[in-house]
Write a structure and sequence with these properties.
Low-confidence stretches: 84-111
Helix content: 55-70%
CATH architecture of the largest domain: Orthogonal Bundle
Strand content: under 5%
Mean pLDDT: 79
Oligomer: single chain
Number of helices: 10
CATH topology of the largest domain: Arc Repressor Mutant, subunit A
Shape: elongated
Order of helices and strands: HHHHHHHHHH
CATH class of the largest domain: Mainly Alpha
Number of strands: 0
Number of domains: 2
Length: about 200
């Protein structure tokens, strides 16, 4: 490749891809739960992105493209190294758990959306910890949707799953998150546990 093409590639990559490095790092940290591994994963992601920059379709969503690379690398590399599948059944997720707990717990007199009321009272650290405790399949789609703002279709493309699976995992992930946050709220005395 001639020098002027190499320089042009470097400029385009810096302008398009590197602006997303903070978001890519945040996602890597949520995936690996370890700063060192997250840094390695980000480095590998940008190395691979640079190597295949010619395959990036100009004008498309570069952030989504980087997240797809990140997710694929995580699944193929890091996930296999540390894979300890959490035992989980979908029966563990009771539909409308948070709403039932708030209403049955004597908090009906409080106005507004009970879920929003609870989230407003919880500390950021509690929310982060609850997200980290989600089973990996749910955690990835929850983070991509709620924290990174990707659409369902973008998440499906990034993770390599069907659109219906994204919706299902988001629904179940949200219910698990609600259940975990309820437990934090009870421990902190924000809400009363029903007797």
């Amino acid at each position: 490749m001639p020098d002027n093409e190499v320089k042009q590639k470097e400029i385009e990559f810096q302008q398009e891809a590197l602006q997303h490095s903070d978001a890519v790092y945040r996602m890597a940290l949520r995936m690996t739960k370890n700063k060192s591994d997250a840094e390695d994963l980000v480095q590998e992601t940008f190395l691979k992105a640079y190597r295949f920059w010619n395959s990036f379709e100009k004008g498309s969503n570069c952030r989504a493209w980087l997240f797809k690379i990140l997710t694929n690398l995580f699944i193929t590399s890091y996930h296999r190294k540390t894979k300890e599948k959490q035992q989980f059944t979908y029966d563990d997720v009771e539909s409308h758990y948070l709403y039932n707990q708030l209403e049955d717990g004597g908090n009906k007199q409080q106005l507004g959306d009970p879920e929003q009321l609870l989230f407003n009272q919880l500390l950021d650290d509690d929310v982060k910890k609850a997200i980290e405790e989600l089973p990996e399949d749910f955690r990835i789609v929850v983070v991509l949707s709620f924290l990174e703002g990707f659409s369902y279709q973008e998440i499906a493309d990034i993770v390599g799953i069907q659109l219906g699976t994204v919706k299902s995992r988001l629904h179940r992930g949200r219910k698990l998150l609600q259940k975990n946050l309820w437990q934090y709220a009870v421990k902190r005395g924000i809400v009363r546990e029903k007797k």
